[in-house]
User: Fold this.
Amino acid sequence: MTHKTNTSTGIYEKHYNDPEIIASKESQARYFIERTMFSPPKNTKVFEPGCGVGIFGLYIKNKFSVNVYGMELSRTAIKLSKSNGIKVKKGDLNNMWPYKSNYFDYVVSSQVIEHIFDTDNFVTESIRVLKKGGYFYVSTPNLASWFNRFIFSLGYQPFFTEISNKDKTLGLKFTQLITGNREPLGHIRVFTLRGLVDLLEYHGFEILAKYGGEISYLPKFMKPFDKFFSNFPSLSSDLFVVARKK
Assistant:
């Protein structure tokens, strides 16, 4: 994940060698494939912008025998991603990407778009590097999730939004009773399903499918509700959208 502030980039650097983060990325890849029914043919070209250390890319590379490419700003992330067999180039996701047009069969973005300043550029560059008829798979947290609708009505800051680079619980201090983790995730733009779909369609994508998803870190008593609402994408905790370049 990449964007323009040193502070935000530093947030990600802390996570690159964290065993819990790495394990969660593997779990995230499995769930992404399950929810979207992602199944690329063998030897196709799959691009993951903001590939981090390549955990997600390595998983789909091994599972589907595809050629996985990536892009990152951090030298540390690039080095680790290359060690995982990902073909990575250095670049900022807010600028033009260092790949030629009409090159990839798939662009896969798992929990990245919410970290980007210039989301218009992110979408238009995804279209540019895709072949005609190529597929864009994207997942992101849902600002209008079932629990956000409830807590917002009580005057709390919605989950997934962050008002501080120091403490992600500001505006949500009751969560300090549940977890001691106050490390910000670097979220910049947070989407509703309608907002994400509108953005993709505005820039020329054809929407093929919309799915809801659960998140793993909710308290146990909330999980049955989260599972139920995952069947309704506009209310689910996570959003998954599949689109195609016309």
